[in-house]
Amino acid sequence: MTSSLSDSGNTLEHLLRTMPKAELHIHIEGSLEPELMFALAERNHIQLGYPDVDSLRAAYAFTDLQSFLDIYYAGASVLCTRQDFEDMAWAYFKRAKADGIVRAELFFDPQTHIARGIPMAVVVAGLKAACSRARQELGISSDLILCFLRHLSEEEAFATLEQALPFRDDFIGVGLDSSEKGHPPEKFARVFARCRELGLRIVAHAGEEGPPEYIESALNLLGAERIDHGVQAIQAPGLMQRLVNQQVPLTVCPLSNIKLCVFKTLADHPIARMLEAGLCVTLNSDDPAYFGGYLLENYLQTFKAHDLGMGHAYTLARNSLVASFAPATEKQRWLHDLDSLFFAYVPRQ
Ligand code: ADE
Ligand code: ZN
């Protein structure tokens, strides 16, 4: 149960790669690789502020969340047509397949696009086309989660929800993302209440850069069923106990946290302490095109930095499947597949 990447690396690496797992925290606009960004810019006659892919990548040296968001929103400006959204999401799904992902719940930021005159219908149609194709050609189950931008007003979130209602069946839930500090969850309590009435699933970014209190208010005031990031919980023992007791899933993104300077190095990341405490932790890539790795890379680097083993791999994959919003029958099938794979490596005592 304890073999780490360093002692029996091949076995553990194979398990990490092949075990069925869900990705629950991926901003699909954050999967836009520079090569595709340049191709779409050319297709749509848009001038990017960088001469080539290499100089763009060189600008991916972030100091905090805001320094990333500024570049991320600029990058999303190349997305104009239904085909652009489909191409971006399809590229992600191909990577997901290679990483052993069986279930992906994609965040998208419609306000970023609507503000540029791109209709909700275009965004949703492109993303849904990729989701259908992923199901048919790759066997990946997926759904969309619409995120409200928290640096904008609640009134604007309500207007976005109104525009999304004709597409109600095309997304399963809502989330809250963008600049965290100074934009507490309570700012959006009314719009999330309306979303709950509509039967939408609820998630929210909280405790990425912001204080542990934002995690409490995302749970208490928004009705969040999962917390995106949540790493700042480590500062608040009472909150930790609640999260453990209620098994609130936390969608942790280790490479993101390093790239955005939340923690200095992966070795400083609290992931091992969080697992040890019994939190329902999952691993995720957040914005893989910007943060240097997709889901498997997050697993590999995290396992290496913390000398995690087979038992941790099983726990993380299991947590991700249990915490997903997939239908129960699908979840049971994946959990069974995970058990079959894992117990072939590590016989039951
Ligand atoms: N939007 C895209 N990535 C994000 C992140 N890591 N935090 C908040 N909002 C985001
Ligand atoms: Zn995120």
Task: Summarize, please.
The chain is built from 17 helices and 8 strands. With 349 residues, it is an alpha/beta fold. The chain has one domain (23-308): Metal-dependent hydrolases (TIM Barrel, Alpha-Beta Barrel).
Question: Any overview of this molecule?
Answer:
This protein is an alpha/beta fold. The chain has one domain (23-308): Alpha-Beta Barrel (TIM Barrel). Helix content is 51%, strand content 13%. It has 17 helices and eight strands. An eight-stranded parallel beta sheet has the order 1-2-3-4-5-6-7-8. It is globular, with a radius of gyration of 19 Å. Bound molecules: adenine and zinc ion. Zinc ion is lined by residues 25, 27, 177, 205, 228, 286. Residues 25, 27, 177, 205, 228, 286 line the site of zinc ion (ZN).
Task: Describe the SSE topology.
Layout: H1 9-18, E1 21-27, H2 34-43, H3 53-58, H4 65-75, H5 82-98, E2 101-108, H6 110-114, H7 120-138, E3 141-149, H8 154-164, E4 173-177, H9 189-197, E5 201-206, H10 212-222, E6 226-229, H11 237-245, E7 249-252, H12 254-259, H13 271-277, E8 280-283, H14 288-291, H15 295-306, H16 310-322, H17 328-345
CATH class membership: Alpha Beta
Major sheet: order of its strands? Answer: 1-2-3-4-5-6-7-8
**What oligomerization state is this entry in?**
single chain
How would you classify the helix and strand content by structural class? alpha/beta
Q: Any idea how many domains?
A: 1
Show unreliable segments.
none
Biggest sheet, open or closed, and with what strands and sense?
A: 8 strands, parallel
CATH topology: TIM Barrel
Cofactors, ions and other ligands in the entry:
adenine, zinc ion
Query: What is the rounded Rg?
Result: 19 Å
CATH architecture: Alpha-Beta Barrel
Gross geometry: globular
Tell how many strands the DSSP assignment holds: 8
Strand content: 5-15%
Helix content: 40-55%
SS summary, helix count = 17
The string of secondary-structure elements, in order, is: HEHHHHEHHEHEHEHEHEHHEHHHH
Within CATH, the superfamily carries the name: Metal-dependent hydrolases
